[in-house]
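Reopening this one. Same input as before:
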Amino acid sequence: MKKITPSKLSLRSTICVFCGSSHGADPVFTEAAREFGRQMVEAGFDLVFGGGGVGLMGEVALSVARSGGQILGVIPTFLRHVEPPLRVASQILVTESMNERKAKMTAAAGGFAVLPGGLGTLDEFAEVLTGAQLRLHSKPIVLVNIKNYYAPLVALLEHFVAEGFAGAHVTEIYHVAPTVEDAIAIFKADRDARDSRTPANGGHALQAGAPSR
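Same output, byte for byte:
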C-alpha cells in the first residue's frame, strides 16, 4: 500500500460514502451528493471515500473540501487512470486490490452512507451489511434514498427475509433516509450515543480508525 501524501492524517468522526463514479440520469443525484458533503462537514464529520474525482464520489469530496472538511481517499492502483485521484483529498491511500481498498475504507469509517450508485456501490453496501449481520461491526449503515432510488433494493432485502434466506433482524441493521438531512441526523444520533459511552480522545487517528459501538 502506498500513500500519495506523507503526513499522518487525524480525522474527526468519519462517514464513509459509497456512491456512483458517474452522475446518473437525474441532476437531483448530483445536487444531493453536494449537499451531503456540505452538511456532513457542518455536522462535524470528515470523509472516507473511494478516492476518485469523478461522478457522485467526486462531487461529495469536492463539497467536503470546499466546506473545510478532511478527506481520506482509498483507491486501488489499477483504477488510478480510470478514476483519477481527487487532488483536494487530504490523503490518498493506494492499494493493490479492491478487497484491500474496501478493508481500509471500512476500518477508517465511523459509519457508512450509501448514495445512488451502481454495481460497485451495491458491492460495497453488501459487504458492510454482511459484516453487520455477522456482528463484525455495529457502525450505522444508511441508504440515502434520494428520489426513492433504493426502493427496489429495500424490497429485495425484504424478499430475502420473506423467503427465509435472511433473518428478520437484517432489516434492523441498516437505515433508510429519504433526504440528506435525515441521513445526517442518523449519523449525529449514533455519534452522540457512542460519545456518551466513550471518553473523548480528541479525534480518531487514521491508523486506528473510528471505534465501533
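So the earlier flakiness isn't reproducible anymore. For the record, Strands lie at 2-3, 10-11, 13-18, 45-49, 71-76, 91-95, 112-114, 141-144, 175-177, 204-205.
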